[in-house]
Specification:
The protein is 32% helix and 16% strand. By secondary structure, the protein is α/β, with parallel strands linked by helices. The chain has a 6-stranded parallel sheet. Helix 3 links the parallel strand 5 and strand 6. Helix 4 crosses helix 6 (206-215).
């Protein structure tokens, strides 16, 4: 019998709640005759009992699985020799922080299928859904951080009412908070020294589109790079977003 395992996320931030497969997807695998082992986790967004209900086996031991999947990097001590792993390894650009992990993967004869490098037959990357959510959560983090930063500089602002993304149960509730902050900005409840606030997007991929979706709940105005000087001088309090991206010879170049 084919066996795959979903590992418990234990790398980095304590707020990591994501899972590579939800219970509905696991049910599809079980119905197809594949045994699915799920390492128990009280932190995961989907309760253990939901996986058990659809036929998964809750078990810490993943030694029977030929394929082990997750989200974040795997701590070196948890890498099981001669297995196939799939997760975001963050090694494709030779990121220094993960080279020791990559060395361990090679030494232990592990096959790595990096989510970041998976493509379809047309050569299109298949992690675009993750990219969109990276943009959504990243922009929420930025707005939340802006509120804290401005407060540290002595300015109360509507951004203080935007929490970190893991605080919201749904995307809709997070966007509602951003929209509420936008209504306060429109009402003039932001110090005049803080405007205009400008965001610059240097790409138009899934991450950028996710981030722009969050910002669309603020009173935004999209402007071309050539108008940036006028916005800085006469922009008032509206949040302005400058799209400074040019396609030159097939690659994205920043306009200075």
């Amino acid at each position: 019998m084919k066996v795959i395992a979903i590992r418990r996320e234990n790398y980095g931030t304590l707020w990591e709640r994501r899972a590579p497969l939800n219970p509905t997807q696991v049910k599809g695998l079980v119905d197809a005759g594949i045994q699915v082992i799920v390492q128990p986790s009280a932190r995961r967004a989907y309760p253990d009992k939901e996986y058990k209900k659809v036929g998964a086996i809750l078990e810490d031991d993943m030694s029977e699985a030929s394929l082990i999947i997750g989200i974040k990097q795997v701590p070196i001590q948890d890498l099981i020799p001669y297995k196939t792993y799939s997760f975001f390894a963050h090694v494709i650009k030779a990121q220094p922080d993960n080279m020791d992990m990559l060395d361990a993967i090679l030494k232990r004869n592990i096959r790595l299928m990096d989510w970041e490098t998976m493509c379809n037959y047309q050569g299109t990357r298949m992690d675009s859904v993750f990219g969109r959510f990276a943009g959504l959560s990243g922009m929420l983090d930025i707005l939340h951080g802006m509120g804290l930063r401005l407060l540290g500089l002595g300015f109360n602002s509507p951004f203080m009412h935007i929490a970190a993304p893991h605080s919201y149960p749904t995307l809709a509730s997070a966007c509602a908070a951003v929209k509420s902050a936008g209504e306060e900005i429109t009402s003039g409840l932001i110090h005049e020294q803080l405007g205009p606030i400008t965001f610059v997007f240097l790409g138009d991929g899934a991450v950028s589109k996710g981030a722009q979706y969050v910002l669309s709940h603020l009173p935004v105005e999209f402007v071309e790079p050539s108008k940036f000087k006028a916005v800085a001088q006469n922009g008032g309090m509206v949040v302005c977003i400058c799209l400074s991206v040019a396609m030159v010879m097939g690659s994205t170049q920043v306009i200075s």
